[in-house]
Amino acid sequence: MDALIVIFITGLIGLFTGLLKKPTLNLIITLCGLAVAFALQLNYGFYKSPFANYQVLEFNVPQLYFSLLAILFTAVIVVGGFGYFKRDASHTGDYYGLLLFSLCGAICLIGFTDLFMFFLGLEILSIPIYVMVGIKKQDVLSAEASIKYFFTGAFATAILLFGIALLYGATGSFNLIEIRSVIQSGEYHTSYLLIGMLFMLGAFLFKVGAVPFHFWGPDVYQGAPEIVTAFMATVVKLAALFAFYSLFNITFQELGYFWIGALYFAIALSLFLGYLGALKQTKFKRLLAYSSISNTGYALFALLSTSNSSLGSLWIFLVGYGFSTIALLTISMAISNEDDEIAAFKGIGYKHPFIGFIMLISLLSLAGIPPLTGFFGKFSLLMNAYNNHLWLVILALISSAIGAFLYLRLIVLSLTKDESDKTITLNLWQYLVLTICAIGILGGGFILAI
User: For the residues of 254-293, what is the DSSP string, one character each?
Assistant: First the structure.
């Protein structure tokens, strides 16, 4: 709770200091706030908090790990996006403030204990992103993406609210522990509960970008600035996946027989539709959006396992996926790929070997090649599901082969000699971001060991 308040206050301070039109000051304030929030979350439980009795937000060990990762991703994204946001000095504070407010919602989604806080967290997370997607005011695609994301997101939220209302009608409570106790006792209204769960399942599949509610992803990813796309693909997805896990694999675990069939369907289609859709893309962010759909399919394997290690597997997977995605989008900004063409990456490994190396390990990690973090994440998720869901694991392995071909094409393109005289330079902030991403991508074995 303390970290949440620090992030919120930092966002407010950033809004006011933004009036001074000093982007560097905004960056320092934002990073200081995130550093304090990270330290408070890291030491959670080791000191007496004035909000210790606030019970609608609680953080056990997995929740702490996920919230720390969300804060770390945000800090890296803030640094990586500094070059973009400082172009408009009068609004740099607004941009950083919106990102921090959205992070507050993400932390609420990770630590919620009742459905009131869950809904508040979801809206606090989503509303700033609706605005951020459309911040390129002169870009028609950005405006279209913002409107599309807002209306489809509002529709999904309405479905979610209807599901929560039915859930309350069936169990008489919004508290997760009480809801689970009612389900275990069998003293609930069956029709209300089952229909409510289906509505909530559909809304969650939309929020995480899984099939069949994936249609918004490619357009929104393409229209948003790279830095906002990075935040959506990492922090937003992380928080939504954890909330999904908390509700369905813990609270609704006893009713898994009812919803697991629909989840099978969503996972199987996501694994293939994402990569197959990505194969024909010529725009880089659209390719990442389709790739994200398949990666969401892998992440949802965590919901199929009741093992205590499933959350740890999901965390490792998100570390590899998150740092790889941030690195690729930072590279896209570094080469000034305004048209978002995949062809812009041709020969990048020759022109700038450091960028070429980062792009290589990022793509290999997304493909699940050992010994990178992406491999350990996918491997541990599939191993948890191996005994009870073998046929789905086989489908995931086939899908991985398609994904490997997709990423290999990008690797070959980046290492193909290009005769153009275009030079590529990185600023200090981009070097720092890419170095941090490389550590996260290469450190999978160490992460697994601890």
Answer: GGHHHHHHHHHHHHHHHHHHHHHHHHT--BHHHHHHHHHH
